[in-house]
Amino acid sequence: MKYTTQIIINKSVEDCFALLKNHDNMKYWQDGLLSYEHLSGEPGMVGETIKINYAFGKRLMSVKETITKIEENCVLNFNFDTSNMHNIQENYFEIIDKNTTKWSSINQFVPTKFSSRLMMLLMPKAFKKQSKKYLIDFKAFAEKQTATKK
Prior knowledge:
The chain starts with a strand and ends in a 6-residue tail after the last helix. The protein is 29% helix and 46% strand.
């Protein structure tokens, strides 16, 4: 499954990129985030991997994030891996004007187990809804420096 989510953020592309690239900011816009830990690579550089832990209701999930491409203020791509799913996320930042940025996020989910393939077939809107929620929450954080409700 592959889809694109976009949002306009009333902040400069430099500000948006810096806020997204800084893992310490995830707690302000990723609802469900419990913790993260650096696993390998140089922080903020291609090849860096971190382990991110989430709680969605009573469901706990660990995700391995790997930075796959960086073009300063333009592109920030990741791979996210769980035991059931491989997610390729391409993030593109476009300057609308000096204080406005368009963030386009292309997500491709590749199930690695039958149960996750079935979940994607039965609940494709859930994936898209979660992706859109993170973009909306990031926009709120970036524009107002406010955290999402926990």
